[in-house]
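Dear H.,

Thanks for agreeing to be a second pair of eyes. The structure we're designing against is below in token form, covering all 172 positions.
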């Protein structure tokens, strides 16, 4: 076969492919950001909502953050599912996970509850707490995780002492 014939056939094939391709849909039809701005305002307003009140049945029990975090209101520990009740444990963890994901004000309380319970089933939730943007939630998650690490206790930072930067090894 001749070289010009092969070149011509290749050119015809490329032209045919280019003409027969489907056009990709346009992702952004307009540059009007009014709908996006309205959605952002709604989401910010939802974040500013008050945490659930105590008369709400879906409200989580309050746990005091003092000492080891095992005490609840008036010194009574919160009730957790029995060791053999897997269904109740699953429901409780699902409620905690949903409260952690939907209401940012409840994150610290959920971490305190997970720390007070100390069950290995709380590990995925505690790991999420370690990546939280709130330093108090991260501190509570670190204290909850210390039980499973087998090492020493994690010391809480003093009130007047500033936290060291994350890259402290590079600054010394």
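And this is the sequence the design step returned. I haven't edited it by hand at all.
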């Amino acid at each position: 076969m001749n070289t010009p014939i092969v070149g011509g056939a290749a050119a015809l094939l490329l032209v045919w492919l280019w003409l027969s391709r489907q056009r990709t849909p346009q992702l952004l039809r307009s540059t009007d950001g009014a709908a996006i701005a309205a959605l952002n305002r709604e989401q910010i307003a939802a974040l500013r909502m008050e945490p659930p009140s105590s008369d709400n049945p879906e409200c989580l029990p309050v746990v005091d953050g003092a000492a080891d975090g095992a005490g609840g209101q008036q010194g009574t520990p919160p009730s957790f599912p029995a060791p053999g009740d897997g269904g109740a444990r699953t429901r409780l963890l699902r409620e905690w996970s949903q409260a952690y994901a939907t209401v940012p004000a409840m994150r610290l309380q959920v971490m305190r509850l997970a720390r007070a319970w100390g069950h290995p089933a709380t590990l995925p939730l505690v790991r999420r707490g370690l990546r939280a943007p709130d330093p108090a939630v991260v501190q509570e998650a670190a204290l909850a995780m210390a039980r499973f690490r087998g090492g020493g206790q994690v010391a809480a930072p003093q009130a007047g002492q500033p936290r060291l930067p994350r890259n402290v090894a590079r600054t010394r």
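Two observations from my side: The longest helix spans residues 3-20. The helical segments are 3-20, 34-47, 86-102, 107-117, 123-130, 135-149, 168-171.

Warmly,
E.
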